[in-house]
Design goal:
two-stranded antiparallel sheet; 273 residues; single chain; alpha/beta; Rossmann fold
Length: 273
């Protein structure tokens, strides 16, 4: 097996040429809580991707220049100081989330190399709770994922000399190893973050479409179902459809739902290669 580093697996390539794809698969985004999934008769997923609330409360902008007017502390605090990203974060329940995911993941097939999995973006501290509680829902195994950025949002802590530049996720699965399209190459669990300069930014914790596309292509095949229970900007759905996967998502905040429909999911383009 050839060994590849993260740069080779998830390269920082020039933006690929795309052709508009209006047929086959369309994103299905619902302005509803994922617990109400039975209303929509959606199929079970090969892959669930979610960026759950980090529960950082009123420190959401604590190390971000947005805390101050114009990003300068000489101007005083902005309206974002001492505020949360979302007023719904405190109502998020990990057990409810895991129950939904365990229910909506496909059953493990008899053949190897076809099992489903889920990827949960989370705060570093949340990984341990997710691992422990996931076992109660039959998600017995996990792989830690780290996404390494070449920048840090913690600019107001720069005088500390050590600042955070990583995003974290947990890949959870039942017992059999998940479907894995690595093309004979080694996939490292520490990958380079792929900045997204071509996609409109409509959500403060939005994940890059190109990064999501790479994850989707590794863990699913064309035609597979991808579900995002915390869809936010809809970037996961956009990435899935552009990779010729079926995409379903839930977003309870009406403003994000409307922006996702109007700005993110109106320009779906199919990858040429």
């Amino acid at each position: 097996m050839d060994q590849l580093n993260a740069d080779e697996l998830m390269p920082q390539l020039p933006i690929q040429k795309r052709e508009v794809n209006h047929d086959k698969y369309k994103p299905n985004l619902y302005n509803d809580h994922f617990q109400n999934y039975k209303r929509y008769n959606i199929p079970k997923a090969q892959l669930i991707i979610a960026d759950i609330p980090y529960n950082i409360g009123k420190d959401a902008y604590g190390s971000n220049p947005s805390w101050y007017i114009g990003g300068d502390n000489a101007n005083g605090e902005s309206k974002l100081a001492n505020t949360e990203f979302f007023d719904t974060d405190k109502d998020f329940r990990i057990t409810e989330f895991l129950h939904f995911c365990s229910t909506m993941l496909m059953k493990e097939p008899k053949e190897t190399g076809k099992a489903p999995c889920m990827i949960v973006f989370c705060a570093f501290e949340q990984q341990f709770e997710l691992i422990e509680k996931a076992r109660k829902y039959g998600l017995n195994r996990y792989i830690n994922l780290v996404f390494r950025k070449n920048f840090s949002a913690q600019v107001l802590k720069a005088n500390m000399r050590v600042v955070g530049n990583c995003e974290y996720a947990i890949l959870l699965y039942r017992d059999k190893l998940p479907k894995f399209n690595n093309h004979g190459r080694m996939v490292f669990n520490c990958m380079d973050w792929q900045k997204d300069t071509e996609t409109v930014k409509i959500h403060p914790t939005q994940k890059p479409v190109r990064l999501l596309e790479n994850l989707i292509e590794i863990f699913t095949d064309k035609g597979d179902v991808v579900i995002d229970p915390c869809a936010g900007s809809g970037s996961t759905l956009k990435a899935a459809v552009q990779c010729d996967r079926q995409a379903y998502g839930f977003e309870i905040k009406k403003n994000f739902y409307k922006d996702a429909q109007a700005k993110m999911l109106t320009n779906i383009q199919k990858k040429l290669f």
